[in-house]
Write a structure and sequence with these properties.
- With about 100 residues, the protein is mainly alpha-helical.
- The protein contains three helices and two strands.
- The chain folds into two domains: about 35 residues; about 50 residues, no CATH class.
- Helices cover about 45% and strands about 10% of the residues.
């Protein structure tokens, strides 16, 4: 019993660290806040190549199939223009699970 009472704080802290790491990993896999946009669904204000959010007022643009896309750099736009359908017609890939 003395070992448990002497080390209880370390056991509790270790458990909290495990829970914190598990939750942050779960958020990343769902595309949660702070996870970056690469694995989540792209939104209208994200660079389709890098997945990073872009300010539309200062972004570099390109049009494809009547839609305007925003880029954070000329290099990113050049990659997009080589094969736009690669970035536009992506389907969401599930990371396990049935649906």
């Amino acid at each position: 019993m003395t070992w448990l009472s002497q080390n209880l704080i370390w056991i509790v802290l270790g458990g909290l660290v495990v829970v914190f790491l598990w939750r942050s990993q779960a958020m990343r896999s769902r595309g949660g806040e702070g996870a970056g946009m690469m694995h989540g669904a792209p939104d209208a204000n994200s660079d389709p190549v890098t997945g990073n959010r872009v300010d539309p007022t200062h972004a570099i643009t390109a049009n494809f199939e009547g839609k305007t896309f925003y880029f954070e750099s000329e290099q990113s736009r050049a990659v997009f223009q080589q094969n736009p359908s690669r970035f536009v017609h992506q389907h969401h890939r599930h990371h396990g699970g049935c649906c």
